[in-house]
Amino acid sequence: MELYHLKTFVKVADEGNLTRASQALFTSQPAISAQIKALEEELGVQLFSRTPRGMLLTQSGRQLYEQAKLTLNAADQLRIKASRLREELVGELRVGMHTDYEYLRVGELYQLIAARHAQLVPHFLQSSSGRVLNELRHDELDAGFMFGPCRAADMEVTPLGEVEMRIIAPKAWAERIAGASLEQIAQLPWVYTTPGCPFYLLFEALFESGTQLPRQIVWCDNEDAIRTLIRAEVGLSVVRVDDAERAVSEGYGVCWHGAVPGMSINLVMLKQRAREPALIALRESVQTLWGASMAVVTESETSETA
């Protein structure tokens, strides 16, 4: 039994006339008759009574008529669902998060992706700016966020903005940094990130003018450690402006009011995968959320800064 047999059956029943049914189905009357005969033979029942007034359903035909309509409707729904699935993204995404989830607006990003692509499920995995490129290359992530420049030739970079930075010191050091120059605060203890972190580039930029580098340094490799060490009055450091404002409002930090270089924030993914529909959907959602330019910048240099 073919669906077109059922479609012909229903149309003949609705029209009550072979000629009108053939016109509605854009086929010939003999073809309509042949399809009805084939269906009757397959089902083993007579569907119509041929009368001078036209084609009238038999008692068996009336019972099967409703079932045939339900079957045709189910087939239509199946086609509609299949069409939507062709257009709808289905799958999972692994997104590397290089800093605290609140700053990256993970909740809002998840809700936006869910609203646009209900069958696309993002997973947010802890990473770092120094690790994200290798994790992408080893297929541990599909995309990731990172601070600082990315000049890797195999990466596609979507700039999301410039992050304002501040130098923050323990609250107890307020008098020591008030009105102090960069040269003077360089004499105080500092909390530094390791060279693999883009924050380290900020220290280099901050002291590139010939200012003597701080002599007393405590090394750490993430922002949580920096915040904890400032709170413990170990040293001062460079942090995001929102972290600096939080430190001041919570009463454990004080800002130095000199100029501090900013730092870029980017979404990165492998260039060879950047045109995959799921990654395009992620990029568009991130750009919407961050209000970034829709232009995607691809760095062409062969060197890279993790």
TrEMBL record:
GO terms for molecular function: DNA-binding transcription factor activity; transcription cis-regulatory region binding. Gene3D superfamilies: 3.40.190.290, Winged helix-like DNA-binding domain superfamily/Winged helix DNA-binding domain. Residues 1-58 form the HTH lysR-type domain. Pfam families: HTH_1, LysR_substrate. It comes from the Bacteria. InterPro entries: LysR_HTH_N, LysR_subst-bd, WH-like_DNA-bd_sf, WH_DNA-bd_sf. Keywords: DNA-binding, Transcription, Transcription regulation. SUPFAM superfamilies: Periplasmic binding protein-like II, Winged helix' DNA-binding domain. Belongs to the LysR transcriptional regulatory family. This is Transcriptional regulator, LysR family.
